[in-house]
Amino acid sequence: MHGLSDTHWICRIINNYILLLAASQSGYLEKNLTAVMSGKPAYAKYDGYTSCPLITGREKCIMAEFNYDSLPLETFPIDQGKERRSMYHVKKDIIPMIYWNMMLKGYWNGPAAYRKLMHLGTDGPEKLKDSY
C-alpha cells in the first residue's frame, strides 16, 4: 500500500499533516510505485522528515525540521532553533513559491538534495561533526 500525508493511518506512516511532509514523501512514493509497476519490490524508505515553521512573533519564525526520532534534520547550515526573520520569509515567501511553481508540477521532492548541498555533501550538521 502506498500513500502520502493524510493517508498515514492507512499506510502506517506516523507523521504530521504538512505540505513539506507530502513533498518529502512524494519522492519515495514515486520510486516505490515505479519499482512495483516494473515488477520489482519497493525499496525506498521514508526517513520521517517533517518541518514545522513556527511563527513566534512579528516577522519571526523558528523552522523546526526533524525526523521520526525527533532529531533535528535542518536544511540550512545555521541554528534553526533560534528565532529568525530569514526563516519567517522562507515560510511566508519561499514555501508558497515552491508549492505553486515546483511541487504541483512534480519538480520538488523535499529539501534533501538542498540539505546535502548546504551541509557540504553530508546529511546534516551531526554527520559533519562526526566526520573529523
Report the portion of residues in β strands. Answer: 5-15%
* Termini gap: 41 Å
The shape, in one word, is globular
> Helical region count?
5
DSSP E strands, number: 2
Provide mean pLDDT, rounded: 80
The rounded Rg comes to 16 Å
Provide the low-confidence segments as ranges: 5-17, 127-132
GO molecular function: FAD binding; sulfide:quinone oxidoreductase activity
Organism: Mytilus galloprovincialis
Protein name: Sulfide:quinone oxidoreductase
Enzyme class: oxidoreductase
Question: If you had to describe this structure to a student in words, what would you say it looks like?
Answer:
By secondary structure, the chain is of the alpha+beta class. It has one domain. It contains five helices and two strands; from the N terminus they run H-H-E-E-H-H-H. The protein has helices at 8-11, 19-37, 85-103, 112-118, 125-130, and strands spanning 50-57, 60-66. It has a two-stranded antiparallel sheet with strand order 1-2. The chain is globular and about 50 Å long.
